[in-house]
Design goal:
This protein is an alpha+beta fold. Helix content is 42%, strand content 18%. The chain has helices at 19-27, 48-58, 81-91, 106-118, 128-132, 146-154, 163-204, 230-242, 294-315; strands at 2-4, 9-11, 31-33, 38-40, 43-45, 63-69, 95-98, 123-127, 139-142, 218-222, 249-251, 261-264, 267-270, 283-287. Strands 1, 2, 6, 7, 8 and 9 form a 6-stranded mixed sheet that branches. It has a 3-stranded antiparallel sheet with strand order 10-14-11, with helices on one face. Strands 4-5 form a two-stranded antiparallel sheet. α3 (81-91) packs parallel to α4 (106-118), α7 (163-204) crosses α9 (294-315) and α8 packs antiparallel against α9. The protein is globular and about 60 Å long.
Length: 318
């Protein structure tokens, strides 16, 4: 997206339908200009030309920063960090990367590193709970300039809780580097295992797993047979939650549904949740994050199968 102060514009680069990413810059008094993603196959990818056009239209001096994202719900894929970083360097515009789950994905960390080498990356921010299995409430701000990081540190008010830091310190001491590396390798294996299990289940219900090969943490399972019923799509998500399957995201999205919208602050989004105004099919997402096991995947698939059987028997004509 493209972000600005009261006298400029904030580049929130490519659209990402997660409320915090939209609310935070607005709460800071910034204007946000969202760049709609482009479709390539099933994937939603960065419209790099549009970002450059916004910067030149408003003037680089009016841009607070461009905000890009690595990890996110399918069918969105990591933003094209290297081309965006090159644009930011060319125009002298700060570049902030939302790297929520990214520490556990070596390819994404390498992507950030290469973007910084070939262009401009000021900060990349990642969640403690998503990457290190500690309680929710902390984050790590990274960068490639010690002076920039020191500047962020100096803004700390001194009244915040030290609990996230303590939790991380204890966890890393207990885990050790070898165990952490083992968990990273296991996560990759579990992701492939989850994808294969979803592909087999999709065939049973005449659905498919969305092809988003650059998204290495989240998978989309189509619910095309429920395109006529928003309630049925949403019901699947709530039924999974009631059965202790958290994190799955059911999204009702059709070309015909473009008139439905959601307002967040001053911004209005059509087909909110799908990262696109015009994503053509409804779906539900599943993710394989660090700490997930093969046994947990098996449990999820059994529960999901039973839910689909119940909902499809009720809503889908034979």
């Amino acid at each position: 997206a493209v972000v600005s102060t009261q006298s400029g514009h904030y580049g929130r680069g490519p659209r990402i339908d997660q409320k915090t990413c939209i609310k935070a810059p607005q709460a800071a008094g910034c204007f946000v200009e969202v760049v709609e993603n482009k479709m390539e196959g099933d994937s939603l990818v960065t419209d790099v030309d549009r970002i450059q056009e916004i910067i030149t239209r408003h003037g680089p001096e009016n841009i607070l920063c461009v905000l890009t994202t690595t990890t996110c719900f399918a069918p969105r894929t990591p933003d094209k960090l290297i081309p965006v970083a090159r644009i930011c360097r060319e125009y002298g515009v700060p570049h902030v990367v939302n790297n929520a789950y990214g520490v556990q994905l070596r390819k994404y960390m390498a992507l950030i590193h290469n973007a910084a080498l070939q262009g401009r990356v000021d900060f990349f921010i990642q969640s403690l709970d998503k990457n290190f299995m500690v309680p929710v409430g902390g984050s790590v701000v990274g960068g490639f300039d010690k002076a920039h990081i020191a500047g962020v540190s100096e803004t700390y008010p001194g009244r915040g809780s030290s609990t996230p830091t303590t939790d991380l310190f204890i966890t890393l001491l207990s885990m050790g580097r070898c165990e952490f590396d083992k968990l990273l390798s296991q996560r990759s294996e579990v992701f492939d295992y989850l994808k294969n299990a979803l592909v087999q289940l999709a065939a049973k219900y005449n659905e498919r797993v969305l092809e988003t090969p650059k998204n290495l943490i989240s998978l989309g399972f189509t619910l095309s047979n429920l395109q006529h019923s928003k309630d049925a799509v949403c019901q699947i998500g709530s039924m999974l939650f009631q059965r202790n399957v958290t994190g799955a995201r059911a999204v009702f999205s059709t070309l015909e549904n473009c008139s439905s919208s959601k307002k967040i602050g001053s911004l209005e989004f059509r087909n909110f949740g799908s990262h696109s105004n015009t994503y053509p099919v409804s779906y539900i997402t599943f993710a394989a994050a660090i700490g997930m096991t093969h046994a947990e995947v098996d449990t999820i698939i059994v529960k999901f199968d039973k839910i689909l059987d119940k909902v499809y028997n009720k809503n889908v004509s034979s």
